[in-house]
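Worked example 4.2. Below are the chains of a multi-component assembly; read each line carefully before continuing.
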Amino acid sequence: MTAVIEVDGLTKLYRRSAPGYQLRTLKSALLERSLTAGLKPEDTIQAIEEVNFAVQEGEAFAVIGSNGSGKSTLLKILAGILKPTAGHVRIRGRVAALIELGAGFHPEISGRENVYINGAVLGLPRREVERRFDEIVEFSGLADFIDEPVKNYSSGMYVRLGFSVAIHTDPDILLVDEVLAVGDEAFAHKCVRKIEEFLAKGRTVLLVSHSLGLVEEFADRCLWLDRGRQRLLAEPRRVADAYRQAVAESEGHQHKEAKKQRQEQIESLDSAGEVVSDAVAEDQPVAEEPEEVLRWGSREAEIMSARMLDLLGNERYNFSTGDGVVFEIRARADRALEDFVFGVGLFTFRGVEVWGTNTHLAGMRPKTFSGDATVRLQCPELRLAPGEYLLDVAVHARDGYPYDYHRQILSFSLISSETGVGVYFPRHEWQSEGGVNWGEPVRQ
Amino acid sequence: MFEVTRRLLRYRGLLATLVVRELKARYRGSVLGFFWSLVNPLLMLAVYSFVFTVIFKPRFAGADLDPYPLFLMTGLFPWIWVSTSMLEGSQSLMANAGLIRKAVFPAEILPMIAVFANLVHFLLALPILAAGLAVGRYLGHPVAGWWSGALPVVVVLEFFAVGGITLALAALNVHFKDIRDILINVLSLLLYLTPILYPLQQLPRAGRWAVHWLNPFAPFATAFQEVVFHGDPLRLGLVAHMVGWAIVLWALGSWLFHRLSDNLVEAV
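Applying the procedure described above to all two chains together yields the following structure tokens:
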């Protein structure tokens, strides 16, 4: 295996834009060929700092990170759009970057002409575009609109044509930025299939994404960028889990900070006496915004941890639709309890309750609970639509009195080779009789 | 200098496609299309002709400028090409910021699109000039001649001069948005400081020297007047003068562009 992308000590500085810098940056651009060489460190922003990695031929490499972590900058440097401030990038092979699909489309002229121009922008000679033209149009599904000016296209159509041209330029290395998020579901899936085909041919893909599910499904390795620094480079499962953990922790931290602040505000009000506290309370309303509380309860019983397992007992957080799943809750009751219910709830990231159940609903009569305990809920087949889900777990009394409610204790993702809408994904099959006939299945 | 030239040659296919796109986009959606690109030069021509033949009735001592509208057309058409190219070209990087920020794109193409597209307009207006000169000759004026056929030489040399300046302006405009305003004023000044409305000989001695040697567009304008309008032979000295400006300006412009090209994407 040979490395097709080598990144060595890569650093990228941006200048802070401020008035009066024009002359200085022009001077440094002219003399030192860098916009930032003449600037003091406080006038620059470090977008990427000392990043090192190599991508092997045929590998699917993912980059994740929160907004502003330098992912797009990295991609643009790899694509050759931006120049590194320090360090080296070596690339072997032809690169196509799907950064902004349809960049360079001209609104006034037809889709057909724009295909040629976009192809030329991406480095494909005219006769090559001609040869692949039908393929490009067919893949985009825009055959009926190809002679319309693209200003009449919807944004989805724009993206479809852009992706179609880009993927047909036959690159060795494909750089993909978030673009798959645009366009409709069906086309997004078509893109994913196309990229899989591309990988199957032994080509290389570097993917920047927010979708951990997609990253886990696709990538062989994953790089986590955190404020421009390389946080972790490992197999995607591990990186995605660590990333989720960090996001959850930072949310929890914010939650704690907010709570502490409220506490301090209340305390300062208390110590300052009644009259002052009234004035302060009027000036600064204490409850600015209702914080989403993620955990509450008396803690007479406490949830120690929750995790997910497959049917073989391996801890996992990504499954295929229809896989067997086990939810495991570890809990402890310091004092013996006689009234207790264990419950779980599944939610989408948007907060839609997908399914919830508890031991009480299952008709289980509590007897005693003391010390450490592990409770498992086994689903031989979790038939939910592909996507990301959140899990709530709880221990409470039968009348609902909370011992420990823990919201969003973990997240997991489901993938599937099929698509559908909604959250439920039953086993299904179409049948028909009478005057309906079907052609060859549509290749997706 | 060679880097930018090399890249322009390498991406000539893309450049050609984009010039065609530019022209098509300009005429798409307008009924009279190409006609409009002739209206402005002809309007300018009519106005200047009226002002200088009817109102001022200039007496150009020792120079036969009849018919004056033809003389004016010979200088004005190339000047419109030159000035519009520089104005549009200087804004081309900013106008296409989305393209160079989001796609791997040879930025040097953008200013050159303006130069080429306006060159096409100029070339398409040439039949009018040719017809005018033919009519002038038919009416007995001593205009044009075999040497008028040397026009392409002047155009090619001026192309490099204008191309170089436009590259430099485009790259500088990324850092100084003021370029546009400066340019608009300089261009309207240059219309009078270049031998377009008058022949060089009409200037007082000191002014003549300054315009001839310091204004890079002067030798080209003089060449159009001498060769195309009068049909005089192309003087070797004048050719050397034009070649000099063409080389210097192209070299300077493409060097500056290349020098600034590493950071264009961030600066736009």
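Take a moment to check your reading of the output against the notes. The longest strand of chain A covers residues 402-415. Confidence is low (pLDDT under 50) at residues 272-291 of chain A.
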